[in-house]
């Protein structure tokens, strides 16, 4: 718009420099307000009842690493239906296996108390879980295990990201269930 004004102004009666500066400032203010309005609309849409901001304080089921401290974690176990042996594999934040235990072929939620092979409590930290389902000696499936973690922050960029208590995080699209804290 300013370019068109400059091209079409009367060369015998040019616009004063101060008037031009005022118009520039006005246009910049209008542009900034439009950007602010768009950002506020985006936030309002995400903060509504179905937005991820409403998830803060709830527990989310995720396969991302979650914080383990003093309280047990709830894991959602779903082994392969034809398995006769199922092992829960626990990995630390670096991906190193720290525990492996036979849990049987049942499915449902279990409380994981964070014990190592020697029975001692594992150190506080981020842990991820997987199941190895076997029939006889054959590995028939390896699946990631969902764990529940309390949501403490919702980030809106890139489709949304949730931050969990203790520092773990996951994209909002990877959350497979929500529940009120127990």
Radius of gyration: 27 Å
Total DSSP helices: 2
Look at the structure and give the CATH class of the domain at 77-147: Mainly Beta
Coarse morphology? elongated
Number of distinct beta strands: 12
CATH structural architecture of the domain at 77-147: Sandwich
Largest sheet: 7 strands, antiparallel
What is the straight-line distance between the termini?
59 Å
**Low-pLDDT residue intervals, each spanning 5 or more residues:** 46-50
Mean pLDDT: 84
Note the run of SSEs as H and E.
Answer: HHEEEEEEEEEEEE
**CATH fold annotation of the domain at 77-147:** Immunoglobulin-like
**How much beta, percentage-wise?**
35-45%
Helix content: 10-25%
Write a structural description.
This protein has 182 residues and is an alpha+beta fold. Among the domains are: 2-45; 77-147, Immunoglobulin-like (Sandwich). Helix content is 21%, strand content 38%. The chain contains two helices and twelve strands; from the N terminus they run ααββββββββββββ. The strands form two sheets. Strands 1, 3, 6, 9, 10, 11 and 12 form a seven-stranded antiparallel beta sheet that branches. Strand 10 and strand 11 form a beta hairpin. The longest helix has 31 residues, at 17-47. The model is unreliable at 46-50 (pLDDT under 50). Belongs to the FlgD family. This is Basal-body rod modification protein FlgD. It comes from Paracoccus liaowanqingii. Pfam families: FlgD, FlgD_ig. Keywords: Bacterial flagellum biogenesis, Cell projection, Cilium, Flagellum.
């Amino acid at each position: 718009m300013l370019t068109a004004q400059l091209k079409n102004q009367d060369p015998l009666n040019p616009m004063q420099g101060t008037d031009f500066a005022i118009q520039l400032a006005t246009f910049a203010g209008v542009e900034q307000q439009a950007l602010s309005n768009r950002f506020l609309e985006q936030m309002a849409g995400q903060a509504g009842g179905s937005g991820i901001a409403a998830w803060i304080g709830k527990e989310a089921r995720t396969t991302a690493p979650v914080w383990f401290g003093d309280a047990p974690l709830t894991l959602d176990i779903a082994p392969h239906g034809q398995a006769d042996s199922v092992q829960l594999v626990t990995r630390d934040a670096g991906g190193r296996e720290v525990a492996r235990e036979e849990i049987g072929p049942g499915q449902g939620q279990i409380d994981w108390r964070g014990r190592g092979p020697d029975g001692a409590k594992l150190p506080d930290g981020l842990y991820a879980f997987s199941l190895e389902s076997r029939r006889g000696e054959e590995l028939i499936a390896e699946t990631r295990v969902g764990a529940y973690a309390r949501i403490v922050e919702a980030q809106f960029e890139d489709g949304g990201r949730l931050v969990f208590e203790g520092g773990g995080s996951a994209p909002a699209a990877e959350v497979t269930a929500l529940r009120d804290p127990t």
